[in-house]
Amino acid sequence: MSTAEMMARRTRLLGPNVSTFYDEPVALVRGEGVWVWDSDGRRYLDCYNNVPHVGHCHPHVVEAITRQASTLNTHTRYPHRGILDYVERLTATFDGDLSTAILTCTGSEANDIALRMVEAMTGKRGIIATDHTYHGNTTAVAQLSATNPSRYGGADHVRFVPAPDSYRPLGGEAGPSHAAAFAGAVEDAITDLEDSGVGFGGIILCPSFVNEGFPMLDKGWLDPALAAVRKAGGLFIADEVQPGFGRNGSHTWGHQRIKAEPDIVTLGKPMGNGHPIAGLVTTPEIMAGFRNSFRYFNTYGGNPVSVAAANATLDVIEAEGLQANALEVGNYAQDGLRRLAKRYGDIGDVRGYGLFFGAEFVRDRETKAPATDYVTALANAMRHRGVLLNKLGVHYNTLKVRPPLPFSRENADLMLETLDDALSALGPVEDFVVGVGAA
Questions:
Q1: Count of alpha carbons within 13 Å of 80, Cβ hemisphere only?
Q2: In the chain, ranges of CATH 3.90.1150.10 domains
Q3: Where in the chain is the domain with CATH 3.40.640.10?
């Protein structure tokens, strides 16, 4: 079946506007480690997919899933030791009193529960998020995404604050001025929620602000904003669905990297290396408040097979030293991007942490005008050269590199060499014409 035939069938069976990547979608049929193959047998270096966190089809995870699936799979109304052992192991990676958990199937569900925890503890529904974030696709959490608004109107209990940007900092300067400007926006949103009668319950943030373009923020950067949240009696939800499980290299969790203290931490995508498991971690006090306020049950959340996959994923992270690898290879790859930036003036900024990094492309380094169409063409050019990556950020002009954690120096070299070739073929931004030379 050709790609065109598959896409036509997909539209007929799944409906219109189902998202795909690239100008020519890649129909994948197999994966191993950091490599994937399409239906024509072509191999691609995967620099994008963070769901297979420890590598596509890792044999240890596959074996754990197979063994448990052939033994027992049921739901959590039947006590099972697997979930207890896993939660005990998981919560040991957190600081303070974050020692209890709920397991779900998706990060969306986890964030949905977190919002209910905020309501249970504060008696208020008002929530703050940034204006360029994504926290899931249930009705409740979809309302937190200003970039994908409902045609039927927004939610009166949500307020948006400007996304932090270390390249174009709020307040005009990086560091404390940037942090103070963000905190001021949070304070204004709190006041507005209180004055509206909705009331302020909490704030939800990805501690690495991934969808916002992963700005480089100093340790303690969030302190002024979180001080305002605490003063108003609100809770802080840290959405670790993307930056968690050692991807940042220096710490297990993104909030630890910037020294922020959340009340609730939500988890997802990489947790089971592709098996659908997610969850949240919180304090015993908040957990009790939620359990006593809401009746909650999840048929598949925390089932023995999903837990086996999650536990095996932790095994691999530890046994193969993947957090340390993320730090070492991530720094190496960023150095390579900085070398390219010396040759290509369209690269305005290189930033990242561990194995989540990238480069922001601009039309002019002085004005920092975003080169969005150029980056779209660049991602497609890389796809046609056998390297999968993509873009994000407030202006969608930041190349995003987010590979599985076994990504090596050799893999980074291939990615950088291919990027060099693609940039040379595309030419400078000032000469770029949309649709010309993209491959």
A1: 20
A2: 3-54+322-431
A3: 59-319
- Report in angstroms the alpha-carbon separations of 282 from 88, 272, 277, 300, 409: 13, 20, 17, 20, 37
CATH topology of domain 59-319: Aspartate Aminotransferase; domain 2 (3.40.640)
pTM over 0.85: yes
Of 377, 376, 369, nearest in space to 345 by CA: 369
**Whole-number Å distance between alpha carbons of 402 and 171:** 29
- pLDDT tens across the length of the chain (439 residues): 777 888 899 999 999 988 899 999 999 999 999 999 998 899 999 999 999 999 999 999 999 999 999 999 998 889 999 999 999 999 999 999 999 999 999 999 999 999 999 999 999 999 999 999 999 999 999 999 988 887 777 789 999 999 999 999 988 888 899 999 999 999 999 999 999 999 999 999 999 999 999 999 999 999 999 999 999 999 999 999 999 999 999 999 999 999 999 999 999 999 999 999 999 999 999 999 999 999 999 999 999 999 999 999 999 999 999 999 999 999 999 999 999 999 999 999 999 999 999 999 999 999 999 999 999 999 999 999 999 999 999 999 999 999 999 999 999 999 999 999 999 999 999 888 776 554 5
Of 119, 115, 116, 84, give the one whose Cα is nearest residue 100: 84
CATH of domain 3-54+322-431: 3.90.1150.10
